[in-house]
């Protein structure tokens, strides 16, 4: 079998990590949440917390990016057991794409049925504004076209099939639920939907690259999420994801704007409360009748 036990990627390694975590907490999460850049505050709202630093978890990568605390937090949201990644991994940190998405397999082995992923992203769609929340309906995996797909390598059948379908990657019922919850909360004015494009980073896009991505059908661009989604769907979890629009991508040679990580984190802070409320309310309304596995 490949990858072999001891490499940190094998089924046995993932099982060892999940067993280690389950031995330290009685919380058995059915919802797994990934906090994007500047959006880690959500994890702090969990009740009855049991938290682990990534450095203490066997086989877990380490967070190296400002705005990603590097803690795995178990707890409850309105009584629902959840696990929350306060910080995720990115290709540009130097991790192989399999490692970037590895926590999704740990989620699966912990009993997670629904994954909610958040990220910070730049708007390519000119109708979007900073502070908009874009429900992701589909993605374009740019690094995937060059072989950076987290399922590359011999397939581990215990997780899923060799050729998983991705035309239904983003659960449509959960997208509708997010729209309904957003309307109920009075967020209609800044709730959008669109296509997320992942690039490898860490450099932000050139103007020519941004124009190209927009023409290809992307509404927002970032450096994460799609890899996690592919692995989560491969192992049969339902997926919901959204982008917080933290900046307008520069598409005009006359513009003086310059993308930077500080504005990304600041935009996260500005929308923190609404993001938390949206997720918290969704979690209370999610039905766990997962038919995909
Ligand atoms: O996707 P998340 O982790 O939210 O972070 C986004 O923000 C960072 C750039 O400011 C990049 O890591 C990009 O992917
Ligand atoms: N690639 C990319 N990632 C981002 N994350 C937040 N904003 C951006 C952006 O403009 N481009």
UniProtKB/TrEMBL annotation:
GO terms for biological process: purine ribonucleoside salvage. Keywords: Glycosyltransferase, Purine salvage, Transferase. Its EC number is 2.4.2.1. Phosphate binds at residues 37, 68, 88-90, 120, 224. The keyword Glycosyltransferase applies. It comes from the Eukaryota. One of its GO terms (molecular function) is guanosine phosphorylase activity. InterPro entries: Nucleoside_phosphorylase_d, Nucleoside_phosphorylase_sf, Pur_Nuc_Pase_Ino/Guo-sp, Purine_phosphorylase. One of its GO terms (cellular component) is cytoplasm. It catalyses: 2'-deoxyinosine + phosphate = 2-deoxy-alpha-D-ribose 1-phosphate + hypoxanthine; guanosine + phosphate = alpha-D-ribose 1-phosphate + guanine; 2'-deoxyguanosine + phosphate = 2-deoxy-alpha-D-ribose 1-phosphate + guanine; inosine + phosphate = alpha-D-ribose 1-phosphate + hypoxanthine. A purine D-ribonucleoside binds at residues 205, 247. It holds the Pfam family PNP_UDP_1. It is an enzyme of class 2 (transferase). Belongs to the PNP/MTAP phosphorylase family. Catalyzes the phosphorolytic breakdown of the N-glycosidic bond in the beta-(deoxy)ribonucleoside molecules, with the formation of the corresponding free purine bases and pentose-1-phosphate. Preferentially acts on 6-oxopurine nucleosides including inosine and guanosine. The purine nucleoside phosphorylases catalyze the phosphorolytic breakdown of the N-glycosidic bond in the beta-(deoxy)ribonucleoside molecules, with the formation of the corresponding free purine bases and pentose-1-phosphate. This is Purine nucleoside phosphorylase. It comes from Monopterus albus.
